[in-house]
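Treating backbone geometry as a discrete language has practical consequences that deserve illustration. No coordinates are needed to read the tokens, only the vocabulary itself. For completeness, the protein is quoted in full, as a sequence line and a line of structure tokens:
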Amino acid sequence: TVASAGVAGSVVVFNTTPGIVIGLRTNDGTPAWSFEGRKAITSAPCVVSNTVLVATQGGYVFALNAADGALVWRSPRLPAPIHGGLASDGTSVFVGAENLVLYALNFADGAIRASHPLRGQSFRMLWPVVFNNRVWASTVMTPIIGSEYVGETNAASALFADGTSLDNEEDKMLRWMGGDTNGGRWP
């Protein structure tokens, strides 16, 4: 995981970079449930009452039942990966996708209610904030906070150069994050 956990009642929830959402019992740390998001998740879960909201780099937002991890709804696929976090007022779910559009999803079913384009370069490591019937969101340039430098030529890495598609690049990134250096080719 590369983000904070969330707590929903007696379950603490972690999102993982391989895309698995894991619920652990708070009393003893044993697994309560897991959910396969199928794409990398690099933001913290958003907990509203007994609902856990998670966003993947595949462009989907999922609402899960906090008690058992059951899928409540899946949003339509947004046109870009989601690298930042989520916020909710219990009526809408707010999420920024990397096409630099902030989306408002219906909390009940995940349908897109509204969208608003923003300027900047990324929502990475940022979370919208809901306060006083307003949504506050910001964008930034992508900071070098971890493995992002892997595709930079100054890091002498061939990780992204070896990719044949976005899915293939993601697979290689997950291998690299798991310790695979491809025989030293990906330092």
